[in-house]
Amino acid sequence: MFKYIIKRILIFIPTLLIISIMVFVLNMYAPGDPVYNMAGIDPQSSKPLTPEAYASIKKDLGLDKPAFYFTLSSKAYPDTLYRIPKKEHQNLLSRLVGTYGNWDEVRAYHKSVENIEAAVNSIPKDSLNPKALIKIKERVRGLYAEYEDEKIQKDFEVADRYITSTPSTSVLTPLMADMKSKYAAMVNNPTTWKLKVPKFNWYGTNNQYHTWFIKFIQFDFGKSYQSKRPISEEIGERIFWTMLISVISLIIVYLLSIPLGVFSARKKDTRADSIVTTILFILYSLPSFWIATLLIVFMCNPEYLEWFPPYGVGDVEGKGFFEGFKIRAYHLILPLFCWSYGSLAFLSRQMRGGMLSVLRQDYVRTARAKGIDERKVVWKHAIRNSLLPIITIFGSVFPAMISGSIVIEIIFSLPGMGQYLYQAIVFKNFPVVSTIVMMLGLLTMIGYLIVDILYAVVDPRIRFD
Amino acid sequence: MFGRKKKSNENQELSQSYWAYVSRQFKKNKRALYSLYLIGFLAIIALLADFIANEKPIICKYEGKVIMPVFRGYAVDLGLAKWPEAFKTGDWKSKEYDFAIWPPVPYLPNNLDYNARWSGPFDKQEVKNTWWRHWLGTDDLGRDVLSGMIHGTRIAFMVGIIAMGIACIIGIFLGACAGYFGDTGLELTRGGMIINFIALLLAFFYGFYSRSYAISDAFNVSFGAAMWKILLGVLIFLGVMILANIIAIPFRKIPFFNKKVAFPVDIAITRVIEVIRSIPLLVIILAIVAIAKPSILLVMAVIGMFSWTGIARFIRAELLRVRQLEYIEAANALGFSQMRAMFKHAIPNSLSPVFIAVAFGIASAILTESFLSFLGLGVPAETITWGKMLAISRTNPSAWWFAIFPGFAIFITVTLFNLIGEGLTDALDPRLKQ
Questions:
Q1: Which of B206, B279, B367 sits opposite A441 (nearest CB)?
Q2: Residue B22: which domain range?
Q3: Interface A-B: count of C-beta contacts within 8 A
Q4: How many Cα atoms occupy the beta-carbon half-sphere of B238 within 13 Å?
Q5: Per-residue pLDDT tens for B337-352?
Q6: Which residue of A has its CA nearest to B387?
Q7: For A203-241, what is each residue's pLDDT tens digit?
Q8: Measured between CA atoms, how close is B107 to chain A, in angstroms?
Q9: B50 and B94 both lie in a single domain
Q10: What is the ipTM score, two decimals?
């Protein structure tokens, strides 16, 4: 038994690592620059972050480190690309190196663009035609996103035109020439062979993934882009509702499905059984988001029936316990129904199947032959073995309930984790998305782990396999 | 008459092939059989959606010339033909035809009809005549619901079939390897193993890593171009692997490298299955969809990539049994290669349980996709799907037709596939049926 549990936990760890790597990679490819997202500033805005502010936010987010323990790249790439401050610049450099393969020339060109940008920014505004200055700035900044030769040449040309036509920008002329020569040097001396030579880099544990994962285990999930509050705090407020509804509906489901399954197995081939089976099958196939929508449209709508409130959990501020309970119950009836009926149908069907196969077994026949009361045969002798499949099914019911929570919470606007995830997705709040995905994944895995261990406890054949 | 019947009975007994038996068993289950017929009907709707609901006439005579605009449309899309000048501009419906046969539903899902906003199925509608009625109502811009339902069928079927196609390819291959080779069946030389490991990294480098910009650029051009680049990557990958194995040949002369080691295929693949099984599909899809650009193909691919485990487990269990049978032994004894024995003999005889997994898999893929589009995630704005239409009822609860029809379509399709899955389970596994 002990050995089995150890073995099972040993599978748990790589699974956790794989999920965490998946989430991390997804997060890395999230659009936009996390630093700007965190600061809540549009990078194209007129007042971008100062380099110092940028660096400090970046450090807070832990982005000033290499991404992973190692990289597999080519000889053309330097192993310190992650030290370039801005994400946009990193992308540009990586792109240009990917085209020309000559890091030194690429870096020189990038520096010349940075020089010219600094020079443009330092020209006082009132001394010249403001339109020309804005145009030049626009073109120079545009160079950070351009890697196609044609577009870069066009930027050069336009910037040149404005510089020559505006006398007060003459400071820029030598810088411009310098940038052009650096660009020409980069384009004309490509070392593309370097791109074909693989290179393996080892960075060690001081990397983004490692720090993120260690922090995650310690429940430090970082901050939300939107509210700037720690995510763990926000989750703490919401997890209550998800857990509450899951637990209540799990209890309802197990309390109802076992008698229902037993009933329908005992009445096999009667009309009652076929009615129950059909209803259960239909319930099982009804998509819960459809039923929830129907219920909201037809039962929470003054045009048809207004029996239930359509969203939220109600306001119990200043109400007594019973009054508050009534309000909560009133709000939660529909969500609980939508949350449970699918699992209820599924479990009852499984229970029926399990009971049927047990009732056919010899020991049940023996018990009946001995003249034991049928009720006792079913509820005392048969029930134990027929519960076995129900336990395993907990493993698939539990994740289904977690996914179900997303559906129901969004439709009924319950302030739980599912709705939090949905809002985070809509508002591109990636730290929250990745945290919740990790947490839900973890919960699912723990569910499976518990089930496997429970099953081994109940059925000795598993652990001696 | 009597003789004839007897003869057909004899025939049945003679043709005791496995599939004939399965199909007979399946036909006994009336529910499943009718579900299959209904799915066939829905599939026809999906296939012919352009002819059932379209803004163009099926056939028309315009300025003395007879043309078939729907067919012409296909040809134009393929670059085989061009529209005549008269049809390049303007609305199809406002033209004066000599005669025209319109599709039963003369609207595309995206056609706007400002005269009929939010009109319900039973409301009075301002349309030319009954043919032009919006039978299932319209939305805020007057878009026809029935047409959306018909074209939504196509999307739903595509999602189910493509997602499960991807799942089948991965699942059958991995499950078969795990079941057929087991933990001892695949023997590699030590040198081969080392070289293959290094080659795997190199193949990834040359096939995908060094071409990653080319691939991501191709995605901006078109999906097809990107697939072409990816295929090229796969070919380079395979090329490197084959080259590495050729280079490995001389190493066999060194005794240390030539020692055979069993590669535990089964353990490796079952572990992978367990890992994938622990990942909550919906949550991961939501995360991916949050980050990527909306694309229905992406949704299909992601569903496929995370739902192959059921198929793989079925195939694995079946092959564990099949590989012990005499005919595989015979194939091996005749000197056929292991791959040939596996792909030509073992797999075709173990495919039957896969059908069960595929039927249930299609149902859940359709459900997942409708849920995503219900949330407005993952599907581009211009694509009309059942889930998206259902979501409209949330913005306007008085438009009851949006709450009922699309949801019913999802329900029916999912239920039919589930019923087929159950019928197949009964037919293929007689032990369960008692």
A1: B279
A2: 17-54+134-186+264-434
A3: 133
A4: 5
A5: 877 887 888 888 778 7
A6: A290
A7: 888 888 998 899 888 888 888 888 888 899 888 888 888
A8: 26
A9: no
A10: 0.80
